[in-house]
Amino acid sequence: MTTFVLVHGAWHGPWAWDRIVPLLHAAGARTLVPDLNTALDRGLHDDAAVVVAALDTVRADGEVILVGHSYAGLVVREAADARPDAVGHIVLVDGWAGPDGASMFDLAPAAFADAARAAAGSLGEGRLVPAPPPAAFGITETADAAVLTARLLPQPLRTFTEPTRLGGAVDRIPGTAVHCRPPTYPFARLGEAVGYRALALDGPHDVLLTDPEPLARILLHARPSIDGQTRIR
Predict the structure, then answer these.
(1) What DSSP string describes the chain?
(2) Is the pTM of this model over 0.85?
(3) Is the pLDDT of residue 224 over 60?
């Protein structure tokens, strides 16, 4: 039996996967959804440690697919590097990815980093980045926007500035980089740069909220490959 370890992105929480989890369960898979929001003053390494702890609880009677959305692309790669024997496949969903020593701010456009630092100056003594509006995640439908507005949390600035620590083991784990279209950031290029197969999916950055069915199909067929397809509606 396959177990999916689903890791939410910045400003989000485990609830971000609420529409995906039932679809994976219906297909006979197990899920584990760690919560990165365990402390306001935390960094990338703290978040990776939460995922490592989750991996350590998974029973070794099937394959584990480790999934990271957005910022959590860096988190899951660092966690997989620490537990390479526990992970069979990595899936990034519009996820950031880079080499050892790269932080999210190193990978993101300078305008993103500058805006986040400026926003952090108004919250938590400069340590917290306020959540952007739902439209920043591509969410414009009224009901979904209301869900995000009520649930989004400030994100510790250190999660964006802390450089990832990779020893090379993660590079031996196959991966898929799902990138949403129209694109917001160069997630396809970042995924391909670390050796992952790029797979396009029509939808906004928070596609797990707006289009759970096609994303769930991709996750369920993450390994083996999806018959050579590069686009799923």
Answers:
(1) --EEEEE--TT--GGGGTTTHHHHHHTT-EEE----TT-SS--HHHHHHHHHHHHTTS-SSS-EEEEEETTHHHHHHHHHHHSGGG-SEEEEES-----TT--HHHHS-HHHHHHHHHHHTTSGGGTEEPPPPGGGGT--SHHHHHHHHHH---EETHHHHSPP---SGGGGS-EEEEEEES-SS-HHHHHHHTTPEEEEEES-TTHHHH-HHHHHHHHHTSSS--TT--EE-
(2) yes
(3) no
